[in-house]
Amino acid sequence: MLAFFRNVRPITCRRSVAASWKRNKANASGTQRLDIRGIYPPIATPFTEKEEVDYQKLNANLEKYAKIPFRGLVVQGSNGEYPYLTVDERVEVVRRVRQALPREKLVVAGSGCESTMATVQMSEQMAGAGADAVLVVTPCFYRGRMDSRALVHHYTKVADSSPVPVVLYSVPGNTGLDLPVDAVVTLSQHPNIVGLKDSGGDITRIALIIHKTSSEDFQVLAGSAGFLMAAYSVGAVGGVCALANVLGRQVCQLEELCVSGQWEAAKALQYRLIEPNAAVTRKFGVAALKQAMEWFGFHGGVCRSPLQPLSEAEAKALRQDFSSNGWL
């Protein structure tokens, strides 16, 4: 597999900035750095028929998730429909989740916005609402100008200001933009950036990032259950998996099999998760995830417009992806 790796050289920071990061990391060495290893569902946001946030159904879901051995929850990620929520709604959902969730479970809040200033402000608000860390997606509206220089500047400003640790978030399926490897390597040196969620599914890229950041205290999470086993095999420490909203115990079981080195059993389980995972992500999206949640006893409900519910044919195909693998 190493034959496929590109030799990517990290971009060069000004010496004063890089030295400052190293000094800060050294000064912080006596404190406990946040360990993000484990499985996280990026939870859906339930809405009423009038498309208002349904906090009662959210709490009902949280009660069930608290009984599954997740490391924590990602709140206001892509599956939470965060682009369609107001700032106040985004913060309030995080506040409600933190209040309802056992303290030992981490709350990782999506705080990414298009501008650096807005992301800094949102990160501060998410920390104030009780988030243990913030997940910061790449700004992408002007993606043609979002090169390594712009993204390193953006994430550095956010991490410098954030009261809680920052997790980088690369999701090219939604943004059309991969966070460049050289930018990740540079940012891994920042004392307040603890890891990366990579949803692209390119295992050689994930392996290269893990290899090139191995000298840093930096952790990588797979962004999908579809390649969770492969990511563990090259050094990832967990996953943020949409499918965990539906098959949470099974995704946690796959984690346990990988961590304990039971690769044959892990492979058998991974095979059965690939089609359902694809169905609730790239194939049919959030509407499919919410439909599947209803089948498995959770509250999914409607999406907020302009997202539309599945057609009858799509719902039938979704059900087939689960039933053919023995889940329904």
Explain what you see.
Mean pLDDT is 92; it is low at 1-19 and 26-30. The protein is α/β, with parallel strands linked by helices. Strands 1-8-7-6-5-4-3-2 form an eight-stranded parallel sheet. 45% of the residues lie in helices and 11% in strands.
In terms of topology, how is this protein built?
Blueprint: H1 15-27, E1 38-40, H2 55-65, E2 72-75, H3 87-100, E3 106-110, H4 116-128, E4 133-137, H5 148-161, E5 166-170, H6 172-175, H7 181-187, E6 193-198, H8 203-212, E7 219-222, H9 228-233, E8 238-240, H10 248-259, H11 263-283, H12 286-295, H13 312-323
Parallel strand pairs: 1-8, 2-3, 3-4, 4-5, 5-6, 6-7, 7-8
Helix pairs in contact: 2-3, 3-4, 4-5, 5-7, 10-11
Looking at this protein, list some descriptive labels.
alpha/beta; 8-stranded parallel sheet; 13 helices; 8 strands; 11% strand; disordered N terminus
Helix content: 40-55%
Taking the alpha carbons of the first and last residues, their distance comes to: 36 Å
The description of the largest β-sheet is: 8 strands, parallel
Order of helices and strands: HEHEHEHEHEHHEHEHEHHHH
Number of helices: 13
Mean pLDDT over the residues: 92
